[in-house]
Amino acid sequence: MATQAPKQETVQNALLASQAQITTSDYIQGVLKQIRTGNLGVFAILLGWLVIALVFQTQAPNFLTPFNLTNLIVQMAGVATIAYGIVFILLLGEIDLSVSYVSAVAGVLLALGMLPPFNIPWYFMVPLALLAAALIGWLHGFIITTFQLPSFVVTLAGFLAWSGVVLILIGGAGTVVIQESAITAITRTFLADEVGWLVGIIAIVLYAVSSITGYNSRVKGGLATKPFPIVIAQIVLFALAIIGFVLFCNSGRGMPLAGIYLVIFLIVLTYIAENTKFGRYVYAVGGNKEAARRAGIPVERIRIYVFMLASFMAGIGGIFLGARLGSVATNAGGGDLLLNAIAAAVIGGTSLFGGRGKVYSALVGALIVMTIDNGLGLIPNVSAGARSIVTGLVLLAAVIIDALSRRKERLAGAK
Amino acid sequence: MRAQPILKTVGVTKRFGAIQALTEVNFEVCPGEVMSLVGDNGAGKSTLIKGIAGIYSFEEGEIYFEDKKVNIYSPRDASSLGIEVVYQDLALADNLDVVANMFLGRERTSGLARLDEAIMEKACVETLSSLSVTTLRSVRLPVASLSGGQRQSIAVAKAVMWNSKVVILDEPTAALGVAQTRQVLDLVRRLAEKGLAVVIISHNLHDIFEVADRIAVLRLGHMVNIFETKDVTQQEVVHAITAGKLKTVPGMAD
Fold this sequence. Notes:
heterodimer; A: mainly alpha; ABC transporter involved in vitamin B12 uptake, BtuC; 2 domains; two-stranded antiparallel ribbon; 17 helices; 76% helix; B: alpha/beta; Rossmann fold; 6-stranded mixed beta sheet; 8 helices; 26% strand
């Protein structure tokens, strides 16, 4: 034992050394190493988007215009919102096939409730429609956990049943209009230039405050942090990106209100996923359900909550989709809505196998999916068939990348 | 000189249908000692452990903890007494980092229900350093990227982080290589030196002779004998495991 003591001493210092402050050049070197090994995270997807965008630009010169791109943000609002909920479902290692028609149910309920004979004001009807959506999610979760059924089958049943409910609710007319301007404004509002700047400045201040307080709390706790110059550099880069975005939007119709909603959802849901016990438990259940159970986590309750959250977000997505069209028709929730939402989450980098993924993957994934949709729509003589094929290939590429990165991680763990 | 037993079972019995898994088993472990539990497959080792851990309850017999008779109906009861079990399959979530795993189910929060990562990370580093679990490069690595020995060490550290008094390790070295086994056995010794009562289940007699103070041998649900490691040879233990007498339950007189 005595001969081993000095060795242990040095090893112990290694662990403590990992807690020491990292220098700026070390940090930059670490980032460069990540780039060399191809571990780009969200930037890989944004790079992919840039490639797709440039290809479209060569085919359709009006693609990269402020007018079209702000329109793209409005187009993707519904799918991205539904995809936010899907991310949580995928983190659990589950699937929810019913979200598209749950979104339609919420849209129809909202539309019908505001019309005669009910004439319920929108500020009552929106919470009611979302409550209904959340209850549907609770029902799915309750059935899945009580009877220990695969979520695939239960939500497939939901997919069929809720599509029927939509048809019955809409009835013979075939379409229900949404005239309430408070609702249609969600997707039709583009902020005036000054308001756009105000929003941009608020975003920059919030980012700066949260980065610096995060840095301070780690320094106070004596924990390793990224170096302060890097924190400042990140704030400056973020500010430049925001300023560029505001300038770009303002040179067209202005910043779309729907885009601001998407960012607010992103912030709130990311906070829930990364900074609360609930979020931590979602990751834990998705990573190792048995470990979660033994740690005293109420696994089944967490699963039910996640199905409720997904249906709730689907409800919001349904309201966005209805607002954009100004009506809800019998084909609401159909078409490729469901698959686009799931594809968005996966293309954004959330694993289908549970436990790995980020909330932002819904947003960047929806951006890719809807860019393909929007871009191919601008090119003359491209059929709807070609659109689906391209979207399918991009999805396939995304899951292959996911599988490869999982294998890489396993190999790294085995050595 | 050994302290009073902190955990003791007296005459515990467990049946699964027609199978008598445990018959009047007396078992004990003292603070500061490593007690090993050996026996062939089906001897009742896991049944005994699971009963103590509250996975299910014994039909007859009593459990004494710190000289008081206790009833353990659930894993929660066991951990509130200070009994923690580290199961063979580790019960770690691969996708979470070391800190998240160590605090899983017992996260610290501050305002706005926000997880207090700084406090958790600090406590995690302190616990690992105090147990000399030091080959980790960072406590922010996902558990999936750690070696088998490191993972086992994290699982053990997680169990002892919560002021536990009795730690039960189920086959902690079964899947490990030589160096990593060394790492885990050292950790087991350190736990005992810190005054914990450690129960270790293993098939590897070599490991057991290296780390255990006493060896309890189960055979077909009966406690054959509890040996002092220093008074016994591997042959004698093997004989007890495969052909030990079942009628009497000696060795518990003191």
